[in-house]
């Protein structure tokens, strides 16, 4: 009998095993005890939303401010990759893919449902119909605008930067490299990737479940299927998952890109159809006014916690905070996918495109569909659409009945929902496999179908048992710790960007300016050798001391009294010229320590260095200006350097406008 061989795999056990254990465990609990699990998780979610909602508000606000700062900062020119990198995808394909992965299916589900629910909400019921319509549009814009894309943008940017600029794996763990260094390859890194894999899986599973229900409702409305039953949902899941697996297997360059391009074109056609056959003038005017209202209210909306309006707090928790938690929970998946397709873009181009273009399209889409529905409800339907706000799965299709060719358009909407789902799921499958394999370049063919089948099976089981809501709640709860992780992404990113910019902007060392080539052999030996504390102390005691002694004698011949101050621990030597009215002139050299990169320690093509610390002589001045390394200076070059600073000192103290900076009070602090 032939021996059984396990299929070849590129899965990383430290990531996949705990992830599958947690995913299957949570799903089984939700399936076996849906009511009890949902009740417990709802209480946890309610506690977080009520008592810690400010964490979400501040986190999202910081993401927006941080990304806008990067656009206008000197870091904006940095490229996501080598300095000569070029984008892998056309601008249209890039925007299409990030849009389809980030928002697509949600726009189909909520484009009519959310504005209608705000319009019909008790929170706004006391206002005039115009006021309710304006608020419906404003808060829909708020939930689907810049703030949502800032959440995706912060993760996508950090991943892109560290993957393509630092050449680290395309993994969330890489975003902590400036803080954890090589520890990202250990247990901490695995824990971060486990979190990302579970979050991605839960997000796509719940989307699959809700997407299937909407497709089923649409098919029933059109009379294609007689009812919204579980048996039909099994068939829909099977078809959608199969398409997603096929698309994911063909790769980003083919399946995902082609479907995204096709879908964005079809979506624009549908948008133009509703705009043309709906209340066109009203829609254009309401979009224009709504955009202005959003811009004027931007800061109020951003920082609002509704703490002074207790009657609106439940609405605030169930809409704004829920949305922030939902976008955050989706950000590992969407961010990873955005990063995958963004190599070669500059930071300015990345942030501006991610924040502005999808946001603008969302606003146009929500205005056309949401405002059309509100206009039909008030002017034609006599409240029939408002009455359906508790049935969002069917609301889109009921809305389409007020437009010409409603059946044909409904089929088109179902097709768009299917393609949007496939583009979300196939990129999700691709991302999950990438996380599970630590971004392996190639994987066995069975791994993509594995994730797709697992998604389909667990989504159907949850759908049948009524545990899908519990899983969604679990996903929202995990958003709280991940929002803190995302804040650390920002800290890590700004630290890395500062190092990056300084690296490329750093000029030749000041100590190399006087080089003429006369002592090149000696200087080569100095450059490739590492200094000990004792060798630097000796340099200060000999070369620096010789230079300062000669200077003191020459100053004395010119009627200027200079003294030399010597200090130990650390070794310092300075020449000082005292003044009564202005600050003393001081030029000193101290023994300074610096930590050497581990990479340099392990480099075989350099002299051996046993300790991470090395020492060098660094200059300092009486006015606290930044000093520099003087280890390559000869005694005469040191004398020349001191005289340069003394000439600068005399030039400054001779100018009346500098009186504020040359007060003799500073001399007291030097005593």
At a glance:
The chain is mainly α and 671 residues long. It is 67% helix and 5% strand. The N terminus is likely disordered.
Explain what this protein looks like in three dimensions:
This protein has 671 residues and is mostly helical. It folds into 2 domains: 16-501, Amino acid/polyamine transporter I (Up-down Bundle), CATH 1.20.1740; 520-669, no CATH class. The protein contains 24 helices and 4 strands. It has helices spanning 13-32, 34-51, 53-72, 91-102, 104-110, 113-120, 129-144, 146-164, 177-180, 187-221, 230-250, 252-277, 280-303, 313-340, 347-379, 392-400, 406-436, 447-465, 468-505, 520-527, 533-557, 598-602, 635-653, 666-669, and strands at residues 562-567, 572-577, 585-595, 613-621. It has a 4-stranded antiparallel β-sheet with strand order 1-2-3-4. Strand 1 and strand 2 (572-577) form a beta hairpin. Helix 7 packs across helix 13 (280-303), helix 10 runs antiparallel to helix 17 (406-436) and helix 14 packs across helix 19 (468-505). The protein is elongated and about 105 Å long. It starts with 12 loop residues before the first helix and ends with a helix. InterPro entries: BCCT_CS (IPR018093), BCCT_transptr (IPR000060). Keywords: Cell membrane, Membrane, Transmembrane, Transmembrane helix, Transport.
């Amino acid at each position: 009998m032939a021996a059984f061989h396990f299929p070849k795999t590129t899965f990383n056990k430290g990531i996949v095993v705990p992830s599958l254990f947690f995913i299957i465990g949570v799903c089984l609990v939700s399936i076996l005890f849906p009511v009890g699990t949902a009740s417990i998780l709802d209480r946890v979610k309610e506690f977080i939303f009520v008592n810690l909602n400010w964490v979400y508000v501040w986190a999202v606000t910081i993401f927006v401010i941080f990304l806008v700062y990067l656009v206008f900062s000197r870091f904006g020119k940095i490229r996501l990759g080598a300095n000569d990198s070029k984008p892998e995808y056309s601008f249209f394909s890039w925007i299409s893919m990030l849009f389809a992965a980030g928002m697509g299916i949600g726009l189909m589900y909520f484009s009519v449902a959310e504005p209608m629910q705000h319009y019909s909400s008790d929170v706004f019921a006391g206002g005039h119909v115009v006021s309710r319509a304006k608020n419906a549009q404003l808060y829909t814009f708020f939930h689907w605008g810049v703030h949502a894309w800032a959440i995706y943008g912060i993760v996508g940017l950090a991943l892109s930067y560290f993957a393509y600029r630092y050449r680290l794996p395309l993994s969330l763990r890489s975003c902590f490299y400036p803080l954890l260094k090589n520890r990202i390859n250990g247990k901490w890194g695995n824990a971060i990737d486990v979190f990302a894999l579970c979050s991605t899986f839960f997000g796509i599973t719940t989307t699959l479940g809700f997407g299937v229900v909407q497709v089923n409702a649409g098919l029933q409305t059109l009379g294609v299927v007689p009812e919204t039953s579980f048996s039909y949902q099994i068939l829909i899941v099977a078809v959608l998952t199969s398409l997603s697996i096929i698309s994911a297997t063909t790769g980003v360059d083919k399946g995902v890109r082609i479907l995204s391009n096709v879908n964005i074109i079809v979506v624009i056609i549908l948008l133009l159809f509703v705009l043309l056959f709906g209340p066109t003038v009203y829609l254009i005017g309401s979009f224009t006014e709504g955009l202005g209202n959003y811009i004027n209210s931007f800061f109020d909306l951003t920082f609002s916690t509704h703490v002074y309006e207790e009657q609106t707090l439940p609405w605030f928790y169930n809409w704004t905070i829920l949305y922030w938690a939902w976008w955050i929970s989706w950000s590992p998946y969407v961010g990873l996918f955005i990063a995958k397709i963004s190599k070669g873009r500059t930071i300015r181009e990345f942030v501006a495109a991610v924040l502005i273009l999808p946001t603008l399209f969302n606003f146009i889409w929500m205005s056309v569909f949401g405002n059309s529905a509100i206009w039909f409800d008030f002017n034609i339907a006599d409240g029939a659409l408002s009455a359906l706000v508790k049935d969002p799965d069917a609301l889109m299709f009921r809305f389409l009945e007020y437009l010409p060719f409603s059946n044909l358009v409904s089929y088109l909407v179902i097709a768009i929902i299917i393609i949007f789902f496939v583009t979300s799921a196939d990129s999700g499958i691709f991302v999950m496999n990438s996380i599970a394999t630590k971004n392996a370049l190639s994987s066995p063919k069975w791994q993509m179908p594995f994730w797709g089948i697992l998604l389909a099976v667990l989504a159907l089981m949850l759908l049948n048992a009524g545990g899908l809501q519990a899983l969604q709640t679990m996903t929202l709860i995990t958003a709280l710790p991940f929002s803190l992780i995302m804040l650390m992404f920002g800290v890590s990113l700004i630290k890395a960007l500062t190092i990056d910019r300084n690296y490329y902007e750093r000029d030749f060392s000041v100590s190399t300016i006087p080089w003429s080539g006369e002592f090149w052999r000696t200087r080569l030996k100095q450059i490739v050798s590492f200094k000990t504390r004792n060798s630097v102390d000796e340099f200060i005691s000999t070369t620096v001391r010789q230079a300062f002694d000669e200077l003191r004698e020459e100053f004395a011949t010119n009627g200027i009294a200079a003294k030399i101050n010597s200090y130990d621990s650390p070794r310092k030597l300075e020449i000082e010229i005292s003044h009564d009215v202005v600050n003393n002139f001081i030029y000193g050299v101290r023994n300074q320590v610096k930590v050497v990169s581990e990479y340099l320690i392990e480099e075989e093509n350099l002299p051996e260095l046993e300790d991470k610390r090395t020492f060098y002589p660094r200059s300092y001045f009486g006015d606290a200006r930044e000093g520099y390394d003087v280890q390559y200076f000869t005694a005469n070059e040191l004398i020349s350097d001191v005289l340069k600073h003394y000439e600068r000192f005399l030039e400054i103290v001779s100018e009346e406008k500098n009186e504020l900076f040359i007060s003799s009070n500073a001399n007291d602090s030097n005593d």
